[in-house]
Amino acid sequence: MIRILLIFILIFLIKNALANKYITIASTTSTHDTGLLEYINNEFEDKYNIKVRALSLGTGQAIKVAMDGNVEILLVHHKKSELDFMNNGYGILRHDLMYNDFVLIGPKKDKKKCSSIENKMIEIKESKLLFVSRGDESGTHKKEKELWELSNINIPLEENWYLSVGQGMGSTLLITNQKNAYTLSDRSTWIAFNKKENLQIVCENLPPLFNQYGIILVNKKINSNLNIEEAKKYIDWITSEEAKELINKYRVNGKQLFFFNHN
To answer: Does the reported pTM lie above 0.70?
Structure first.
């Protein structure tokens, strides 16, 4: 009788362990705030019975967490940082996954046509127009710094008109709206953001504003406890035709937010 009871307990423990297997993804605030990551992760969990935990971080923070061996997967959007991560042995495979673009946001009273992102950045600096920076080493913040550099402007950290807030994209947009200021946003978060009555897009559809997302499988050598087998299943699935359809059909306010481009 005791032997039978022990067998049942063992079966229960095995089933419970299988039911509770999970992987962890460090991703950007844009995939979280727009609802995309929850949407696609629910589909994966239903199909594979593998729980997905998602950390919503800026790209820089997400990469640091992965370097420390705390996640199996990175889903971020700063290709140079991603390639550095791979070249330094922290990742074992990387794919382009999807893209959208960045948009420069400003007050509705700005009626000037944006001929180039460089000219607009120069105008902001020379006119000392209030600019709100995420200041958090996210992919968006890294892109913002690239745009200042592209415009031959040193990042104006000490200027009164430059406000570095160390916040995610939603909070940054909220501050920008309150202050009738300028900021850089990924288009998907801008579309999903609701409190923008004082703001508009002032620059868009320009080559420097392209925004590529990559997905990376973390190297198990960093942490032998990483669940790489299940994580590989996730990456194989999210780069499949099934996930392509899910990503491309995802809409907020009737607008497509992300465009699958893995090949």
So the answer is: yes
